[in-house]
Amino acid sequence: MKELFRTNNPVILSWASAILAGENIEAIVFDIHTSILEGSIGALPRRLMVTDRDYARACCLLDAAGARDKDVVFADGNT
What we know:
The chain has 3 helices and 4 strands. It has helices at 10-22, 34-38, 55-64, and strands at 2-7, 28-30, 46-50, 73-74. Helices cover 35% and strands 20% of the residues. It has one domain: Alpha-Beta Plaits, CATH 3.30.70. A 4-stranded antiparallel β-sheet has the order 2-3-1-4, with helices on one face. The chain is an alpha+beta fold.
C-alpha cells in the first residue's frame, strides 16, 4: 500500500475515493478511527491509500481532477 495524501477533511476523502472507484481503483482510508483516541477534535489527518500497482494511475487521476488545489498534503511532498 502507498499513501496518496492525508487530510482532515472527510468530504475530500469521499470525493477522491469516488473518483478512484469510478476507475476501479480501490482506495482505503487509514486512521479513520483515531478520532476516538484524539477526542474527536480532528487533529490527526486521515490517509488515503492505494495498492502499489494502482499508485501511479491514482496520482494521475487525482491530479487531473484538481486534487492538488484542495486541502490535502500529498505523500510525494507536492501540494
